[in-house]
Amino acid sequence: MDFSTVELSPEDEAFRSEVREFLSSIVTEDVIRRDRETGDNFDEGVHLALGSAGYLEKEWKTEADGGFSRVRRRIWELEKRRAEVPWVTWGTTAMVARSVAKFASPEIRDDVLRGVFDGTVRLCLGYTEPEGGSDVATCKTRAIRDGDQWVINGSKMFTTGAHNCQYVFLITNTDPDAPKHKSLTMFLVPLDSDGIEIQGIRTVDGDRTNIVYYSDVRVDDKYRLGDVNGGWTVVREPLDAEHGAVAAADDGLADVAIMMHQAGFMAEAADNVAALVGRSGAVDDGSVAYRLGRSVARLEASLSSPSIFGRVALAQTMRDIAPDLMDIAGSVAALPIGADGGADDRSEYVYRFAPLVGIYGGTLEVFRNMIAQHVLGLGKPNYSAPKAKAS
Ligand SMILES: Cc1cc2nc3c(=O)[nH]c(=O)nc-3n(C[C@H](O)[C@H](O)[C@H](O)COP(=O)(O)OP(=O)(O)OC[C@H]3O[C@@H](n4cnc5c(N)ncnc54)[C@H](O)[C@@H]3O)c2cc1C
């Protein structure tokens, strides 16, 4: 790992000031308050402003294609986090847009990408179904061909951002008799199609996600991505990206693991709680100092854990230290952020957020199995019942 400091050129420093000023002008207190109320993690005004200023396109494209240089990309990402730009829907949009660029028919590709760059087109992920999400290839949502169209029936659970998006990147089953990885076909389904019903769900941390029902939804074949029954090839890349199973750039300018954004809330809560007990003098109590020190040590270790290990370490640490942080802060931590008389230390939010961070994009159990199997070479997990002891 490279811990050296990056010296910014005067131009890059000017870029940092420019984006800091721009972001603070669009991510207002009103935006933050509204986002907490809706749980959307998306603000259309902010998103359109980012699009019309050209930032979405620059973030999405590589430097060779006219995007940010590596240093500016890093500055941009850090400044966005500092400003608390709502991030979820751009995350799914950027990921799916890569599959659109690679697999969409020319009839829709350029239009969709143009909209992605100016912010008017947003894309969400329709993988998980009510009966299970860990194994996305076990898909029951059916698509049946009818001439130049497909008829889709089924339901998808946790389609985050669907109500703010124009298309869903939908996994469907087009051949129930085939082996599961050869039965899938991907579509970019327009969310204003007849037969789609989006119902909101609020999660324990206040985020909004959705269950989406598809009843006889008709989709033109031009919205198919990749080959019929070749959906696994299309969906593998975004799944790997979401799992953080892609090699990090070795220039030290990338996050060491995915979910660093979420980890930032944990780091902030730890800082806030340390400041709180420092001010109150409670830190002089040996047990408070010990538990705070242990939490910060765990936090630092998780922030330094790379790739797939980092994904597990961050989410597990969040789960483990959030109760300690709340306890150390005392009864004031029971009040949510923004509540009268609260300390706004965020430990309470991190406590509610932690379970989700270990679920979406793949659960911790699934990730631990991936590490065991693919990194440690321990073979496939064996879920059979233990053998009865010989009597
Ligand atoms: C806030 C939030 C947002 C989400 N957003 C989206 C989204 O935008 N689009 C989308 O498609 N999905 C989304 N998801 C769904 C998410 O990806 C799934 O919840 C996750 O993959 C787990 O699937 P599941 O909930 O169906 O649990 P299941 O797969 O049913 O698992 C149940 C339990 O069994 C365990 N388990 C399952 N398989 C294994 C295994 N092989 N080895 C060991 N243990 C196993 C799991 O760890 C878990 O504890 C979101 C989820 C949340 C909570």
Automatic annotation (TrEMBL):
InterPro entries: Acyl-CoA_Oxase/DH_mid-dom (IPR006091), Acyl-CoA_Oxase/DH_mid-dom_sf (IPR046373), AcylCo_DH-like_C (IPR036250), AcylCoA_DH/ox_N (IPR013786), AcylCoA_DH/ox_N_sf (IPR037069), AcylCoA_DH/oxidase_NM_dom_sf (IPR009100), Mycobact_Acyl-CoA_DH (IPR052161). Residues 9-119 form the Acyl-CoA dehydrogenase/oxidase N-terminal domain. Signal peptide: none annotated. One of its GO terms (molecular function) is flavin adenine dinucleotide binding. GO terms for cellular component: plasma membrane. Its cofactor is FAD. It holds the Pfam family Acyl-CoA_dh_N. Residues 124-210 form the Acyl-CoA oxidase/dehydrogenase middle domain. The keyword Oxidoreductase applies. Coiled coil: none annotated. It catalyses: a 2,3-saturated acyl-CoA + A = a 2,3-dehydroacyl-CoA + AH2. Keywords: FAD, Flavoprotein, Oxidoreductase. Belongs to the acyl-CoA dehydrogenase family. This is Acyl-CoA dehydrogenase. It comes from Mycolicibacterium peregrinum (Mycobacterium peregrinum).
